[in-house]
Design brief:
single chain, alpha+beta, seven-stranded antiparallel sheet, seven-stranded mixed sheet, elongated, disordered N terminus
Length: 706
C-alpha cells in the first residue's frame, strides 16, 4: 500500500463518490432497520427509573395508589437513525449498578455515572471478538451483531478463524458484483450540540499488496464523502510506537520517545497510521493499523451536528482466498470484552472499532475570568465590590440619542481595575494616553443608556438585571453593547440567549400518549426572514458563533424532520416478499417488515425504491432482505386516506421547510404488488382536489417487478 496524501480525497468506490441530491437523501445507501433489543443479551443502559422517596398516596380513592417521580434520561443524539445516544454523564439504570464496580462512579442514591474526568461525551465501541457494541465505556452490550450497529452494509460477514483464534470483518467469499461496504451514522442535532473533537480507532489489516481498505467520512450537511488518508509509518517512525512490537529489523523499541511520537502523530493529523509488519511463510505483504491508536479526524466534522463514516473493501486480486486479505476490526478470540466489568474502559482498548466524540454547545459561554474575579475581591475578599458603590474611581456618561430628559441618565460609577479586567475596551482606554485615561471619565456617544448600565452591572454581578423579562430585541441591543465595549462573556451570553429565543433548546418532539396513532411533531422553526435578520446582526456585531449556529440549524433542520418522522412512524407487519426474495428463510414467521416513501420537490428523498432493508426472525441468526416498494401516498389525499392495515394518521406541516420537503407517511398496505412507484417530481405541493378520495386514481407504477 502506498501512502495517501490528504489532497486526494475522492473515494474510489462509485457508490461513495455519488453526490446526494440533498441533505435528506441517503446518496444511494440502503438504510437498514433493526428492532431494538433484538437479542436477550442486549441491555438498555439508560432506561427510565423512579425515585421511591417521591411517592405520594392519592387521596379520595377507594384503593390506595401512589404517584412517583419518573426520571427519563433524554438522548443527546441518535446512532444510525433509530438508536438513541446518551451523554456519558447520564446516569445508568440503577438495576445495572452492580455491573460497573471499578468502571464508573456509584452515587449515594444508587445511580451510576461515568467519571467526570472523561474526555469524551459520546463513545461507541465494537468488539469483533464478542460481536457486540458498547456505549460510553460501559462493558455491557447495547447492540449484538456487527450488522445491527450499521446504517447500511452489504457483502460483508464476520469471519471467525478457530485455528488461528482470530476474528474480523471481511468481504463475502465469491462476491464479485458488489464492492463490500459498511456505514455508521451519528447525529447529535436533537441536543443542539456540535462536534468539537472526533477521534476513532479504525483497525484494519491487509495481507496482499492488491488488497485495500478505504475509510471515508461525510458530514450530514455535506453532499459527498471524503476519503481519509492512510499513512504507513517508515521503519524509522515505527520505532517510536511501542504497541507495534518488533519491526522488520527485529530490534526492540526500548528507545521510545514520547516527544518524537507526539510529533509524528501531529504531523499526520487527520490520517490513519499503519505500519508494515514482517512477512511470514503465509504472507509476503502484511500491513496493520497501529493498535488502539485513535486517529484525530476532527478536521472533517468539526462544528457539525452529525456525520457518516464508511469503510469499503477491495479484496486481493491474486489467490483463491483473496477475499480475506482485507480485514477490519481484527481481534484475538483470546481477549474478548464480555465479562470484564472490573476493567471498565481499559477493556475497550482492545476493540477494533472505537468512535469517540467530544461535543460542545452551539454557543459556549466562557466562565468568569480569573482576572475579573481577583479584581472584585482584591480589596476585601469577604465582600465583593458593586457598581455605584463606595470606592468607585471611574465615571461613565452615556449620551443616549433617544433620551430627551438628561436627568434620567445619571452617570455610572465603576472601579478602574474592574473595568480593566472585564472589558477589553476599557483596558485599552485606560492604558492609552487619551484624556479619558487621566480624567477617569468617559462619554459614550450614541449608545442606549439602559443596556450600557446592564453591561457594567454584569461585570460586578455576573448576571443581567431583569433577565427573565427581556425579549429578542433587548438581547440584540445588549449584544451590540457587549460588542462595542468588548465584554467577551456578555457577548457570548447574548448570542446564546438570542439563539434560545429564536429556536427551542432542542428540536423537540411532541406526542400525545392518549392517542396511539399520534406521531412526533418537530418543533416549529423560525422563518427565513428572521434567520436572515439575525445573520445580519451577527455580522455587524462580530457574533461568529451565532452565525455558525444559525447556518447549522438551517442545514440540519430538514435532516432532523426526516429522522423524527422515520423514528415516529410505525414498523408493522408486512406481506412477505415472494420466496425468491427470502431464500431459505421463507418459512420464518417472525420476520417484520417496514416500507416508506417520500413525496417532495427534492426528488426521491430518503425513501426511494428499495431504500429499506430489514433483519430479524431467524432464531439461528439474522437474515437480510429487501423491502417491497409501496405506493406513494400523495399529500393531497393523505389526510383522508385509510387502508387495510388500519394505519390512519394525519399529516403534519413542519414549518416552511416542512412545506418545502413535502408531507409523507409510512404505508402498510397488504397485497400492494411489487411495482416501483413513480418518483416524486420537483415543484410545489399541489392543492387539495375537489374530487372525493374514493374516486382518486391510484398512483401510476411500472409493471416490472422488484
Amino acid at each position: 500500500m502506498s501512502n495517501q496524501t490528504p489532497d486526494n480525497s475522492e473515494p474510489t468506490l462509485p457508490l461513495l463518490r455519488q453526490e446526494r441530491e440533498n441533505v435528506v437523501d441517503f446518496g444511494g445507501l440502503c438504510p437498514l432497520y433493526y428492532a431494538p433489543m433484538h437479542y436477550p443479551t442486549e441491555v438498555e443502559l439508560y432506561e427510565p427509573s423512579f425515585d421511591p422517596h417521591s411517592a405520594a398516596l392519592h387521596e379520595n380513592s377507594r384503593q390506595p395508589a401512589a404517584t412517583v417521580k419518573v426520571q427519563v434520561p433524554l438522548p443527546c443524539g441518535h446512532f444510525n437513525i433509530w438508536r438513541p445516544l446518551h451523554d456519558r454523564r447520564a446516569p445508568v439504570a440503577a438495576r445495572l449498578a452492580r455491573f460497573f464496580v471499578g468502571s464508573a462512579a456509584l452515587q449515594p442514591d444508587g445511580r451510576v455515572v461515568a467519571p467526570n474526568n472523561s474526555t469524551w461525551d459520546s463513545r461507541i465501541s465494537y468488539s469483533s471478538a464478542d460481536d457486540e457494541y458498547y456505549e460510553n465505556g460501559h462493558v455491557l452490550p447495547v447492540i449484538n451483531g456487527w450488522r445491527h450497529g450499521t446504517l447500511a452494509a452489504r457483502s460483508l460477514f464476520r469471519k471467525v478463524e478457530h485455528d488461528w483464534m482470530m476474528t474480523y470483518l471481511a468481504p463475502e467469499q465469491g462476491n464479485s458484483h458488489q464492492q463490500p461496504l459498511a456505514v455508521w451514522r451519528f447525529n447529535y442535532a436533537e441536543s443542539r450540540r456540535a462536534v468539537e473533537r472526533f477521534h476513532a480507532v479504525l483497525g484494519f489489516s491487509l495481507f496482499a499488496e492488491s488488497a485495500a481498505v478505504e475509510w471515508c467520512v461525510r458530514p450530514l450537511s455535506s453532499h459527498r464523502f471524503r476519503r481519509i488518508p492512510i499513512h504507513v509509518l517508515t521503519p524509522e517512525e515505527a520505532r517510536y510506537f511501542s504497541e507495534i512490537g518488533s519491526g522488520d529489523s527485529g530490534e526492540s523499541h526500548a528507545d521510545d520517545s514520547l516527544e518524537q511520537r507526539a510529533r509524528i502523530i501531529e504531523q499526520y493529523c487527520g490520517q490513519i497510521l499503519a505500519y508494515r509488519a514482517s512477512s511470514n511463510e503465509y504472507n509476503d505483504y502484511v500491513v496493520h493499523s497501529v493498535p488502539a491508536l485513535a486517529a484525530d479526524l476532527t478536521q472533517y466534522v468539526e462544528g457539525e451536528y452529525g456525520f457518516e463514516l464508511a469503510v469499503s473493501f477491495v479484496p486481493a486480486s491474486e489467490g483463491p482466498d483473496g477475499w480475506q486479505k482485507a480485514q477490519v476490526a481484527r481481534q484475538s478470540l483470546h481477549h474478548p470484552i464480555s465479562g470484564r466489568m472490573r476493567e471498565g474502559e481499559d477493556a475497550l482498548s482492545r476493540c477494533g472499532l472505537d468512535f469517540r466524540i467530544k461535543l460542545r454547545d452551539d454557543i459556549v459561554v466562557p466562565p468568569v475570568s480569573v482576572e475579573l474575579t481577583h479584581a472584585l475581591t482584591a480589596t476585601a475578599p469577604e465582600q465583593r465590590l458593586c457598581m455605584d458603590g463606595p470606592g468607585c474611581n471611574f465615571t461613565i456618561c452615556v449620551r443616549d440619542p433617544e433620551n430627551t430628559v438628561g436627568s434620567l441618565q445619571p452617570p455610572i460609577g465603576a472601579h478602574e481595575h474592574v473595568l480593566r479586567a472585564g472589558s477589553e475596551y476599557f483596558a485599552a482606554l485606560l492604558e492609552s494616553d487619551m484624556a479619558e485615561s487621566s480624567s477617569k471619565q468617559v462619554e459614550l456617544e450614541g449608545m442606549p443608556y439602559g443596556p450600557v448600565r446592564s453591561a457594567i452591572y454584569f461585570l460586578y454581578a455576573d448576571s443581567v438585571p431583569r433577565e427573565e423579562s427581556m425579549d429578542l430585541n433587548d438581547w440584540i441591543v445588549l449584544l451590540d453593547v457587549a460588542s462595542r465595549l468588548s465584554i467577551p462573556r456578555l457577548h457570548q451570553l447574548s448570542q446564546a440567549r438570542i439563539l434560545a429565543e429564536v429556536v427551542p433548546d432542542t428540536l423537540a418532539t411532541l406526542q400525545d400518549p392518549s392517542d396511539e396513532d399520534s406521531y412526533k411533531v418537530p418543533a416549529e422553526y423560525p422563518d427565513l426572514e428572521t434567520i436572515e435578520l439575525l445573520q445580519g446582526v451577527a455580522a455587524d456585531t462580530g457574533a461568529h458563533d451565532l452565525a455558525q449556529a444559525l447556518d447549522r440549524l438551517v442545514a440540519y433542520y430538514p435532516i432532523e424532520v426526516c429522522e423524527n418522522r422515520i423514528r415516529s412512524s410505525p414498523v408493522g407487519e408486512f406481506v412477505p416478499p415472494p420466496p425468491h426474495h427470502m431464500g431459505t428463510h421463507d418459512h420464518d414467521p417472525g420476520i417484520r417488515f417496514a416500507v416508506g416513501r417520500a413525496q417532495g420537490p427534492f426528488g426521491r428523498g430518503p425513501f426511494g425504491h428499495h431504500d429499506f432493508e430489514i433483519e430479524g426472525g431467524d432464531p439461528h441468526g439474522p437474515v437480510q432482505m429487501p423491502i417491497m416498494a409501496g405506493p406513494v401516498i400523495h399529500p393531497e389525499i393523505a389526510p383522508g386516506f385509510a387502508h387495510a392495515g388500519g394505519n390512519h394518521r394525519g399529516v403534519h406541516d413542519g414549518g416552511f421547510l416542512g412545506r418545502l420537503l413535502g408531507n409523507w407517511r409510512l404505508t402498510n398496505i397488504p397485497n400492494n404488488g411489487h411495482a416501483d412507484p413513480p418518483a416524486p417530481q420537483p415543484g410545489p405541493v399541489p392543492d387539495v382536489p375537489h374530487a372525493t378520495h374514493a374516486h382518486m386514481p391510484p398512483p401510476e407504477s411500472d409493471s416490472e417487478s422488484d
